[in-house]
Design brief:
CATH architecture of the largest domain: 3-Layer(aba) Sandwich
Bound molecules: flavin-adenine dinucleotide, FE2/S2 (inorganic) cluster
Structural class: alpha/beta
Oligomer: single chain
Strand content: 25-35%
Order of helices and strands: EEHEEHEEEEEEEEHEEHEHEEHEHE
Number of domains: 3
CATH topology of the largest domain: Rossmann fold
Number of strands: 19
Mean pLDDT: 96
Number of helices: 7
CATH class of the largest domain: Alpha Beta
Strand order of the largest sheet: 11-10-13-8-9-12
Length: 341
């Protein structure tokens, strides 16, 4: 059955936007250039909550963790998990911070190649049917064959002519999406991709020194930020410190990629860190030891408020980094991240 077009009206004003019946309210609003708040796009964060005033909808993932029992009692819905079944009226506060940098589009892409970076992380290079721009640090939704729901993956390259989007993905034990991507998506496979999304994009006009903190697969958007920053004339006076954290030495990566960038060793510096289980030997390891938020605090301390700071990684790391930065009095508008759920 082909998708039909519906109209979504935001109650209390003149704003409305078209939404195809196979699209979600959040993503259709973003495609129309509207600043519908969100973060993860995959039902986990709850930032895209809204109330349905009138009309019929279908909820794609009723058990999505982004809604609490209280939200459900109040009949709140997630914009990223709701498709319209006719014209609707919704209650929602648009917020200019969420305005799209580039209007996201639904496109097809072919896997050209992949290569391992560590024992459990690989880089996947997709070629899009049509060019689409994105900002360094943004992410896309990948629809993998046989997998329910899109999976969010950050681009690790910069857009260039918009044809090639590269991702660095960590294999998640027991994960449906990563098992499919690593074991079933061979070069030549076509998948649907939707993007770009995300608020943690490179601020090209913020001529401060830059601190990138990447934990695990958080490498992807931080590589993109580093690549973008080193190529941006407006940031030519900025130094970038790239801290990468892995559990053990075999999880650490990224240096060989950063070494290729202009400015390496001059205004681009890499600090690897490991956080082994207590009591484990760190013999043979010459980098930093500790969680990323501890290493960043130790290395930069009182200088932290002078940086533009980007970070990405698993929720526990993101929460610890965010708390440390706020305690260190870094102004919130200098802190940029999209949490990986
Ligand atoms: C903004 C963002 C950027 C990310 N960037 C990266 C990256 O660059 N590299 C990387 O390795 N990982 C990244 N992740 C994590 C990635 O999206 C996956 O969560 C991870 O790869 C595990 O996926 P999985 O399918 O293997 O695991 P699973 O446990 O099978 O799936 C977990 C993910 O699927 C979603 N999900 C589960 N069930 C459903 C359902 N029924 N309907 C809809 N959605 C469902 C969950 O919300 C969750 O996102 C990112 C996540 C976010 C939110
Ligand atoms: S739950 Fe919808 S954007 Fe996170």
């Amino acid at each position: 059955m082909s998708a039909s077009q519906t109209l979504i009206r935001i109650a209390g004003g003149d704003t409305s936007f078209p939404c195809a019946s196979d699209d979600t309210l959040l993503r259709a609003a973003q495609r129309a250039g509207l600043a519908f708040p969100y973060e993860c796009n995959v039902g986990s964060c709850g930032n895209c909550r809204f109330e349905l005033v009138e009309g019929d909808v279908e909820v794609l993932w009723p058990e999505a963790p982004g809604l609490s029992d209280k939200d459900r009692q109040r009949k709140r819905l997630l914009g990223c998990q709701t498709q319209p079944r006719g014209d609707c009226s919704i209650k929602l506060r648009l917020d200019a911070r969420y305005a799209p940098q580039h209007l996201p589009r639904r496109l097809c892409a072919v896997l050209e190649s992949s290569r391992p970076l560590t024992h459990d992380m690989s880089e996947f290079r997709f070629v899009l049917d049509e060019p689409q721009q994105f900002e360094p640090g943004q992410y896309a939704l990948a629809y993998l064959p046989g997998v329910t729901g899109g999976r969010a993956y950050s681009m690790s390259n910069t857009a260039g002519d918009g044809r090639v989007w590269e991702f660095v993905v960590r294999r998640q034990p027991g994960g449906q999406g990563t098992r499919t991507l690593f074991d079933e998506v061979a070069p030549g496979t076509r998948i649907a991709i939707d993007g770009p999304y995300g608020m943690a994009w490179l601020r090209r006009d913020a001529a401060r020194d830059i601190l990138c903190l990447a934990g695990g697969s958080g490498l992807a958007p931080m590589l993109s930020i580093a690549r973008g920053a080193m190529a941006e004339p407006r940031l030519a006076g900025s130094t970038l410190h790239f801290l990468y954290g892995g559990r053990t030495a075999r999880d650490v990566c990224g240096e060989d990629i950063l070494r290729e960038l202009p400015g390496w060793g001059e205004r681009l510096h890499y600090v690897p860190a490991i956080s082994p289980v207590p009591g484990a030997s760190v013999q043979g390891w010459s980098g930093a030891v500790g969680y990323l938020h501890e290493v960043a605090l130790e290395q930069f301390g009182a200088r932290l408020p002078g940086f533009e700071i980007y970070f990405a990684g698993p929720p526990a790391m993101a929460t610890a980094v965010q708390r440390m930065l706020l305690d260190a009095k870094v102004p919130p508008d200098q802190i940029h991240f999209d949490q990986f759920y």
